[in-house]
User: What shape does this take?
Amino acid sequence: MDGIDVDALVGLGLTTYEAQAYVALTRRARATGAEAARLAGVPRQRIYDVLEGLVARGLAGVEPGRPARYAAVPPEEAIGALLGEHRSRLDRLERETADTIARLSAAFVAGRDENDPLGYIEVLREPAATARRFAELEAGAQREILAFTKPPYAVEPAENVAGLESLERKIEARSVYERSVYEDDARADAVRRFVAAGEEARVVDELPLKLVLIDERVALFTMDDPVAGGGPLTIMVVEHPGLARLLKLAFESVWAQAAPFA
Assistant: This one.
């Protein structure tokens, strides 16, 4: 039965040597360190540290003398003391857990209203996704759409159905095209249809980038790789009024110097 008792005491928090020494002390009214070491099977060089540990935890008593003698505290008291230690730790753990839950719950609730700190930035590289997003933003315009338009086109002018629909909704639309648009009759005719529907259009020899500004709120612009050169377009969509207003100043500067579309 000693092995079962030792395992039970280890489960309550004693070391193996402490459990063996306590079980051994219960077999005697009192025992010297040497006797306890022999009965418990604990090395002589360790037994006094082990016995003092039991005394410190209230599981054994000591009678001073030469040699000192040790006696086990009754099991009911000893095991009650061990359970008391566990209850104290559990109470402390419950308090700490409650505090942690309170802190994390407050952060969790507050976090429901927080978004990615860069959530106003969207990166598009796939042409079909770019076309869909552009159409969505055009369809959602309330007042104004300003654009720098140059090749390569994510959406060909002739296919820009959302753009025509925005003109039908009386959205103010102004576009600056690169002069190369005249080199493609289909594109030039598509721009003329836009102009007939109400778009104001002008041309310049060269534009620095592709740009769309919507309601001084959203900016779409190309981010060409200066090292790799060509390849699929990378489009940045930034919903940031401050940036949109700043880019509108650049648009107005180019617009003022551009020639009317003919």
